[in-house]
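Sequence only, no structure available. Ideas?
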Amino acid sequence: MHTTSPIAVIGLGYVGLPLAVEFGRVRPVVGFDINPHRIDELRQGHDATLETTPEQLQAAGQLRYTCNQDDLRNCRIFIITVPTPVDEANNPDLTPLIKASQTVGQVLKPGDIVIYESTVYPGATEEVCVPELEKASGLRYVHTGNASEVDPDRGFYCGYSPERINPGDKVNTLTKIKKITSGSTPAVTKVVDELYASIITAGTYPASSIKVAEAAKVIENTQRDLNIAFVNELSVLFARLGIDTIEVLEAAGSKWNFLPFRPGLVGGHCIGVDPYYLTHKAQAVGYNPQVILAGRRINDNMARYVARNTIKLMLRQGMDAPRCKVGILGITFKENCPDIRNSKVVDMVREFQAWGMQVVVSDPVADAGEVQHAYGITLGPIDADHPVDVLVVAVGHSAYRAMTPADLRPLCRGKQPILADVKSLYDRHDAAAQGFTVFRL
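Reply:
I predicted one. Tokens follow.
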């Protein structure tokens, strides 16, 4: 079924582009994105997300890029990889998914397969996306329950294979991560599984249904969110007990089965978002989740917690907080990745600004224009010519990890500046020897 026909990948971001590139090495692929600028830069061999190299783009000889819907008409398999964010009230925002479904539905033909990779709650593919496909195409969705009733000349199929991309990770890349697959009928499940098996060297895992595959994906990040929330809460507790959290975790880590989670800020488009999709569905079926939402509350508050504890140190040292200059190193949601979506560093900036402080943010990876557009924050220099009173190292970029407390000291003025080492990148004793008053989670 459709073994040689072109594949369409809808959405060429952190998830879609690496997928399109891998398929483009072995078969015809149409990479579709609604952003003309994104299409132009990819045609020129440049990927602003840094997930693929110019050499990898060039190696995908059968991949062509477009923002023209008509270029999708000859495709028989459509893979949708658009974002699934939350709104300001933390409710799922399925607008990109719905619009992508409408786009595909308008070019859908009998027998075509639509595969979703976007993270959703269990049931979203068939409850939200399928109706859009049916409405736009005039065709019927074929699944195990109705396959014997639907005219093959009037039906289409769906699959779900959740993305497992880890942005910025150059070791655990797309082909090296086992892929969950599923389809609306057993035959389609096999087609979807064989499709991904053609590029995924780590193997595949066929799930029993689309809903099972959806649930498996959403709990992956929810599990991580809860584990990080646990160590974040420990950090708050140990601070009151006068114990260094990292020293405790390193000691506990001497046991073989202790999980190596560290405290920190939880932002981005996955771990900080996906749990809300699961809790949304839970509430829709009459269950009020307790543990999941508790973890979200803890993690959503950590940026403000860092800022407030840094301010407490400033006041204890007699610093005139409203007249101090705070420098923050890093604004992306994770290290060595230019993605700034749902960055919790922004919450920290707002908290310092609420105290009347001047805040300067620097980041060697983030795009200054995107930061300005998304958050109204202008990236600026933090160096010996532009020193600060308080230095917050918020993201563990390689450039920051390569520095030492001695390298950081010229960035600060005053006899005893404050260093908030959010990621615990530096030896706290070395930092103290450089004159820093240190706070870390």
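The mean pLDDT is 93.
Hope that gets you unstuck.
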